[in-house]
Amino acid sequence: MKVRVRLFGTLKRYVSDYDPEHGHEIEIPDGAKVQDLIAHLEISKSNAPVVTVNSRIAKIDDELIDGSWVNLIQLAHGG
Fold it and tell me: What is the pTM of this model?
């Protein structure tokens, strides 16, 4: 199945040909979950993003469906 991913903050560095206007289409296996997509992109746990799927906040174990729009939003850090 294919999902379209939009990356925010420094997460864009995980996709070399990332297009911020249109996002990035990724093919993943049927039945893949949010955590599988994050692993596929090789995003480290220290950069764990807030995730929305089709404009709804998603949990790490939510199953993705073909054609979904997934936003991965990096949390701000400071000190």
Answer: 0.87
